[in-house]
Structures are given as structure tokens and as C-alpha cells.
Amino acid sequence: MRLRTDLAVEAREIAGENIGGVDFDTYSENGMEISRLTVRTERARLALGKEEGTYVTIELESLTDRFSDTDGRLRTIGAEIRRLLPVNGLLLVAGLGNEEITPDSLGPKTAAKVFATRHITGELARATGLDRLRPVAVMSTGVTGQTGIETGEYILSIVKRIRPNAVIAVDALASRRLERLGCTLQISDAGISPGAGVGNHRTAINRETLGVPVISIGVPTVVDLRTLACDLLGSEFKRDKAESLVPDGRQMLVIPNEIDLLTERASRLIALSLNAAMQDRFTLEELVELM
Questions:
Q1: Residue 194 gets which letter from DSSP?
Q2: What are the residue ranges in the chain where pLDDT is below 70?
Q3: What is the pTM of this model?
Q4: Rounded to the nearest 5°, which phi and psi values hold at 256?
Q5: CB neighbours of residue 153 within 10 Å
Q6: What 3-state class would DSSP assign to 209?
Q7: Residue 202: its pLDDT value, please?
């Protein structure tokens, strides 16, 4: 049974740390452990099950702990996001997921907090000093079960209309380990498969499907029950008993008790970091006042 995870660092743990075609580096900043994994070859892509590209993983204290809106960690996370963004031009932030399902609500909750600026133009912007703002458009996609539209199709239609220089997609993820829920942030330029965090994989959203760079950001909110059992028990896990963990074929997920608080604070962390990354002509303090 393949262990299920959306985190590239965990895929490397499972596949082995000596895979060729993978660059890996770690460092610390502002009390956070940061790793940068780059998948460079087709062989590495197949071994890890991750598309070619860069995956930045940031380990921080649990997001159930309160943080300041001007916390220095936001600048660090913002700088990591900015490295993957085009220097200039319009950006489209897309919040993926279903706001009615708490562990899948990270995307829409984040989108609601991102500073949309595409409409701030003209003399008013110049007179108020807001002409320094980078143009940003924001959308929440919902899910196919709500809209009848594939998430990728929905985003592509907006991309064709407003022609952004890049898309930033925010979605919930799945981890293989309970201790990573709510305290791990992954940023990647390899795109994303919508619904990955709750096991409902759809058409990939990436440069190939949209025609522009796609940066994905996510926090793990769930652990697949079979993956958890296999991870905890190791060789003692009876593979023939795996089906008992999916009664009637239903996928079972493990979710922390504080999932409401976790998604709310994770969405704020990502939104503030995104604002800092996209609006680097303003300080965090100025951005908080504008929000």
C-alpha cells in the first residue's frame, strides 16, 4: 500500500533520501526549520510521485498558538513565496476547496483575507499612495460538487479573461504524520491537484494546463487513516486488514479536534504572508492597516 502524503519532504522520507535527481537543503530562520527540495529529473519525479519543481517546507509552532499580525515569521514566509513569483504584473490568488467542510476550507478562508487590488487604479490610487500596490485579483473556486464546473476549468476561464502573470493556488493538504498537522506549510512552483487534502483529486492545475506559472501553498489538515496505521505499525501492519479501515469503501481521515481554530489561523498566516510577498513596497504594519 502506498503511503499517502501531499508533502514532498515526506515523499522523500518514504522513497529514501539518496534518490538521484533531487536537490535538498535545510536551514533555520526566525525560529522556523525550512527545507528546499527540488525535483530535477523524470526518474526522481516517478520515485517521489511529485512533479518536477521546487518544494519549500516550513516547520513552525502549531497554528493553534496565537501569532502577531506583524510577526517576523510572516516576512520570512513572504520572502519564500516571493522567490517563486514573477517580478511584475498581475497575480491571481485562487482559494481552492469547500468552505462547508472544515478541513477543506483553508483555500476559501485564505482568499477572503487576501488584499485584492486590481480595481484600485487611476487618480485616487495616485493621490492616496496606493499606486504602489501590485495588482492582485482573488477568487474562491468552490468544488465541482457545488458548481458543476471543474476547478481547473473555472480558473482557466478567469486566466484567459484577465491574463495574470501567475496563479497562486491555496488548498488543504494531507500528511502522513499527525505531528505535522497545523504546523507545516508547503510552497511549490509545481502546481497542485485540487482536493488532494481530502482525497478527491481532480485535473492538475499547473503551467501546462493554465499557460502561466502556478505557485501552490498549503497546510496539512488531515491524515489518511490507512496511511497512519501503516506508518505507526510499520511491518506489524497487516496489509490484508487495510480494507477494514475503509468500511463500505469510504475513505476515513483523521482530523485534529481543534480543526476550526487551525484552519482559521492557518488561513490568516498564509494571507498575511501572501500580502507581504505580493506587496513588498509596503511594510507589514502598513498592510495590516490597509486590510
A1: T
A2: 1-2, 64-70, 194-202, 233-250, 291
A3: 0.89
A4: -65, 150
A5: 14
A6: helix
A7: 63
CA atoms within 13 A on the CB side of 139: 20
User: Would you state the cell numbers that stand for residue 135, as one nine-digit string?
Assistant: 495588482
pLDDT for 197: 47
Nearest to 167 by CA among 216, 201, 134, 204: 216
- The answer to whether 54 touches 37, Cβ cutoff 8 Å, is yes
The angle formed by the CA atoms of residues 19, 7 and 171, to the nearest 5 degrees, is 145
Beta bridge partners of 32: 29
Summarize pLDDT for 221-253 with one digit per residue, the tens.
998 887 777 777 665 555 555 555 665 556 778
CA atoms of 28 and 127, how far apart (whole Å): 41
Q: Which residues contact 87 (CB under 8 A, 6 or more apart)?
A: none
- Classified as helix, coil or strand, 141 is strand
Euclidean distance between CA atoms 103 and 109, whole angstroms: 11
Which pLDDT value is given to residue 241?
Answer: 57
Q: Please provide the DSSP assignment of 37-99 as one string.
A: EEE-SHHHHHHHT--SEEEEEEE-S-TTS---TT-HHHHHHHHHHHHHS-SSS-EEEEEES-T
For residue 172, give the C-alpha cell: 488543504
- pLDDT score recorded for residue 242: 57
- Count the neighbouring beta carbons within 10 Å of the beta carbon of residue 33: 13
Three-class secondary structure of residue 268 per DSSP: helix
SS3 146: helix
Q: 54-72 b/e with 16+ CB inside 10 Å = b?
A: bbbbbbbeebbeeeeeebe
Report the C-alpha dihedral over residues 91, 268, 102, 53, rounded to 10 degrees: 50
Smallest CA-to-CA distance from 92 within 66, 118, 112, 74 is with 118
